Amino acid sequence: MSDLEARIRRLEDRAELEDLVIRYFVAADDDDMDTLGAAFAEDAEFVIGGGFSGGSSRAAIVEFIRDDRKNMGVTVHTQNFTLLTFGDDGHASGVIGAHLELARGGTTVYGAVRYLDDYVRTAEGWKIKRREMATVHVGPWDDVATSLTSELRSRWPGQDPAPADLPR
After folding, report:
1. Is the pLDDT score of 84 beyond 70?
2. Which end of the chain is more exposed for a tag (fewer CB within 10 A), N or C?
3. Is residue 168 part of a domain?
4. Strands 40-48, 52-53: parallel, antiparallel or unpaired by DSSP?
5. In which domain, by residue range, is 86 found?
6. pTM, entire model
């Protein structure tokens, strides 16, 4: 492959990975579990909050998300940035900054998170191999005024306030 071909392929890879991130968010908001599942590799892993496992296979991840969505109403996932780093030709990693607006347990929840992703190229294209969701801050809309100034920035409804996954 010539240098020009390699550079064009890298640009195409970036575009495909950007689309993958957006496709995941739209599928999550639309309860489209088929499209959401297709974003993950068969042996993918999903970790939430520094250790809680959301599954270690595509099927387990979809089932976890489907079950979690039973406690939610309308959701809005908004991508703020995507920082991609390429390893070899078939591996990449990404830091995805996003804001979340969720109807969860009858409460409007607002927050900022980072998805720490590892990607793998498959026969079907790029897939998420590992996704870790780390909170910057999250909590009921009524708490937004203090959600960045508190030591306990993770305030999921029904849970005790806790430190965020990402420090200052």
Report:
1. yes
2. C
3. no
4. antiparallel
5. 3-146
6. 0.92
Amino acid letter, residue 168 = R
Report how many domains make up the chain.
1
With respect to residue 167, please indicate whether it lies within any of the assigned structural domains. no
Distances, alpha carbon 22 to alpha carbons 19, 75, 76, 150, in Å: 5, 14, 12, 31
* Residue 163 domain-assigned (yes or no): no
CB contact at 8 A, 130 and 25:
no
Token readout for 83 is 């920082």
- Supply the CATH number for residue 124's domain: 3.10.450.50
pLDDT (tens digit per residue) in 100-123: 999 998 899 999 999 999 999 999
Residue pair 100/109 in contact (Cβ under 8 Å)? The answer is yes
Confidence of residue 27 (pLDDT cuts 50, 70, 90): very high
